[in-house]
Amino acid sequence: MQPIIIVLIILVVLVFIALIKTVQVIPQASAAIVERFGRYTRTLSAGLNIVVPFIDTIRNRIDLREQVVPFPPQPVITQDNLVVNIDTVIYYQVTDARAATYEVASYIQAIEQLTVTTLRNIIGGMDLERTLTSREEINAALRGVLDEATGKWGIRVNRVELKAIEPPTSIQDSMEKQMRADRDKRAAILTAEGIRQSQILTAEGEKQSSILRAEGDAKAAALRAEGEAQAIRTVFESIHAGDPDQKLLAYQYLQMLPKIAEGDANKLWIIPSELNDALKGLGGIVNIPGAPGNGGPTTPAPRRESPPLDKN
User: Fold this and answer.
1) Can you tell me the mean pLDDT for 226-247?
2) CA dist., res. 31 & res. 96, Å (int)
3) Helix or strand or coil: residue 144?
4) CB of 56 closer than 8 Å to CB of 29
């Protein structure tokens, strides 16, 4: 009985192994290459697949999702004989699992070497300044060459990016000094422009202020003149409306004489000949005997100017 049990156990194990090899589950976004006696037969897609055990074998399982592969820095010589280190990143996707398995031994290594050689060809035709400012151009040229070369390998290159472009240390120092000088120059120019603009604005403000002040003074003078004219017209109209007689006018005239002599600078003043007419009117008011117009002589005195009277 012992040998029979051992044989049955062996058969069960073999059947279990055969079932495992017969049923193949392929994950989503993956593919598997099936070979029969070392020859390609078919490609298994995602899902449950049945193969012949011990006859069909799974050669390779390939991820069909987009892959990202960074490559280490590569030294590249520019057109002006400067060595720069360039880091690249490749975004690719396997579109044909059979071609990726049988057309190239290692498509990752092949893409890396193709990227390096293509990059050297592109950068070799550019100087350092153009290399640093033409990333999009370099990316587009790399992608075009890689996509064309990897098409027969069943691979599609979606994007190529330059992570970093590092020139030599001495060149970096020179570039930093140049950039610092340019920044200082721009700062000085901006400062000068600011000062100039400030001075212009200040001058414009002073000009506007002077104009407004002059306009205000002119309007004020005009208003003052208009007020004085109005006051004179009012006084004149009041005088005419009151119909003053000769006596009132003479009295007002005599009241203004002391004001004429006011002030420290007035050392002497001259009495005009019209004072006689004023005295006539005043004599009539206060009834001064002998005054002209009040019983006195009516013959006018000869016109002559009185001698200057000293105030002191």
Assistant:
1) 72
2) 9
3) helix
4) no
